[in-house]
Design a protein that fits this description.
Helix 1 (2-17) runs parallel beside helix 3. A seven-stranded antiparallel beta sheet has the order 4-5-6-10-9-8-7, sandwiched between helices. Strands 1-2-3-11 form a four-stranded antiparallel beta sheet. The chain has helices at residues 2-17, 89-103, 159-170; strands at residues 28-33, 36-42, 48-53, 56-60, 65-70, 76-82, 107-117, 120-129, 134-142, 147-155, 173-174. By secondary structure, it is an alpha+beta fold. A hairpin with a 5-residue loop joins strand 5 and strand 6 (76-82). The termini are far apart.
Length: 175
């Protein structure tokens, strides 16, 4: 019961922070914003970019994706570019619990909501992995030409990593 409450608290924090972020291949630059140093990772084809704290690192995943990870490995954001979403966001969310339960034996749904990113409305679906002691959030951010799927993973209790991952997600900019 304590683990479930702890996981729920982290999940809610993740949901409040936003969700995950997007990126691809090459360009990095460092900027100072209100004292916080960040880097920006720009997709090789310039289809999207994301900002992240200097205690994270980023790299490409295939031709249209990116992975961002905290240097202490207590947070991860995976970004994938996808084809445009067909149907409604509500329809997408409806099938997620069944898909995730098949994928993860310790899946426990926490909740779904809508976030407003620079790309427009996005689905934020959060769940706990009870045996793995992790909280995960999937963000589906559609645009007119494509969509982005962002997956955030953090250990239960990693509140700072969850806040940082939320900022990364909210920084997603489509090219």
């Amino acid at each position: 019961m304590f683990l479930a409450r702890k996981a729920l608290a982290v999940v809610l924090l993740l949901a409040l922070c936003g969700a995950a972020a997007g990126v691809l291949a090459s360009r990095h630059h460092t900027a100072s914003r209100a004292g916080a140093r960040t880097k920006t990772y720009v997709a090789g084809d310039r289809s999207f970019s994301v900002s992240y704290p200097t205690n994270w690192h980023a790299g490409p995943v295939g031709a249209t994706g990116a992975v961002l990870q905290r240097n202490d490995k207590r947070g991860l954001v995976l970004v994938r570019e996808r084809p445009p979403v067909k149907g409604t966001l509500a329809h997408l969310v409806k099938g997620l619990p069944r898909q995730l339960a098949r994928r993860f034996s310790d899946f426990r749904a926490v909740g779904a909501s809508v976030a407003h990113l620079s790309t427009g409305p996005a689905v934020v679906y959060t769940f706990a992995r009870t045996k793995a002691d992790k909280v995960q959030t999937i963000v589906i951010a559609p645009t007119a030409k494509r969509s982005f799927t962002l997956e955030v993973v953090a250990p239960t209790g990693a509140h700072d990593a969850a806040r940082e991952a939320g900022k990364i997600v909210r920084s997603l900019k489509a090219g």
